[in-house]
């Protein structure tokens, strides 16, 4: 199960995935989240997409209605719950499927070949338009290096680019056939498609620019944005296609070309003003000629005007042999290797490229490996899942890449620390990619509890853990994220090498990053708890260093407390819970409520044997200044107790007080049927959390009171009932 479609349609969700999806929709304003989605998938799981649509529609309606009170309540519960204009624009585009797809070169080549052979039929035109549709992607996701044109909500945040659905090689593939007579003959029929695509791209660019301007509180588009738009590689390709198709139409049907120019003058003038694309030189087809050609044309960092990419795809053995022959001469044209590795990381080439290319790269100098690290990482990771032979070369290459010199990770500014996800950062870095490749390969071997790590793997992971260099932090973060699986397979190794990274006796930043990795998807594995118990408890004093993972820590600590099996001493758990700041305690209360909700029919037993003892024995006595921030979550915990609602209310009543936005609690009381089942206790809760200054929908209050009166008519004369009913009258409910 997954939140995303990672190259396949995933299975249906269980209750845990549903709750995780709902939790994520409470963070739609976090700029890291849309970039994470775009960087890890080609689409959203249908259930996650439905949750996103519902949440966005709800928030946009509140914004449109100016419902400031409800918006304030939402922000009070989750500071990044409400996306700004730029994030809302991105979510709309992601929901609309405007994500680029990987490994689409074969489909594009087949489509173009069909057009040249059979003409541009309706189905073929639809396929071509789908492959060339404009999409958005985080800058850097496409494999390009250096500064990228794009849009961003404010300086220092993730920049987004306009790209084509077919991926990076689409431009080279299209330009390589510009002079093909069969292609030229079909261009007039494709003019409507290319014009429509160009219009879509301009509209999409305008939407992004407008969202950026709104986020920056500007009234008009900034000139810098327009310059970035014009430099977009995707727009450039579509302009060239529209121009070429129109010029071909001028020759074959001048009257039609004139009509198009009259209808879309601005569009075609803009396309026609673009300088013609540079001529594409073909790479030779024979081995000997290709070796000589590569020797003379080693490529450049800015890209080459030739069809080397197509040669790598169409003639794998010839292109791989040519690179091998040059390597024997000590010549390593790294731009050509990068292009080859990018193509050969696709599934259809993995087996052959690993068999023939891996031994060549095994002999590459370190300087070459470092230059290729950014493309070797994805290739190695793709290969790891279906590795067939050369395992020693695989682990050796990975280890050598880890040993290269990399600049230290850029530390975020203090005002951006909470938005940085070190696990996502690590997964994009060569060190992180190689670490993930090694982990992926290890999982394919079928790890067995207590069997240890493979001999080829253990020294590499040991080196990662022991080498405290900043550049290798990406690897340590990812190992910590897999700590449970590694401990199960190799407990002795993990206790000696990996788990010490979680101890705060080492530099604070190292421990904080390790915990952020561990908390990425924490699991309560009971045999592990006594081993990490001391470090887990110490982490409470370092809550602030965890950044956005702080809430995950509070949730994990609470789940450990609910175990009540002695793996971590109760007195020490109580001390750790007492050290949590108020936002950590709020998350702890929500975790308790979520655990109750997940207990289903066993909710009463779970309350009496887990949640109630945790609150009574481990939760700290709350100070008066903490209660305003916690009353909402504690009241929600009461409503989740089901048939034990009266017991929960009795225990938590001393901590309850008026909350700013009680409407959602009223909804929960109604939805759970508590007003009818426990009218007196429901009235007591409502009297505790509602006062004259509260902001809520009076109709919700009246519905709860009506249910209480029907269940117990005597309560209608209770002074609390009378007071609350008076509030409904004062707020205009008849």
Describe what this molecule looks like in 3D.
This protein is mainly alpha-helical. Among the domains are: 81 residues, no CATH class; 168 residues, no CATH class; 77 residues, no CATH class. The protein is built from 39 helices and two strands. Strands 1-2 form a two-stranded antiparallel ribbon. Helix 18 runs antiparallel to helix 19 and helix 24 runs parallel beside helix 27. The longest helix has 35 residues. The protein is flat. About 6% of the residues have low confidence.
The separation of the N and C termini measures 49 Å
Strand order of the largest sheet: 1-2
Q: What's the total helix number?
A: 39
Task: List how many beta strands DSSP finds.
Answer: 2
Helix/strand-derived class?
mainly alpha
Helical content stands at 55-70%
Radius of gyration from CA coordinates:
30 Å
Overall shape: it is: flat
Low-confidence region ranges: 141-156, 218-230, 266-272, 412-417
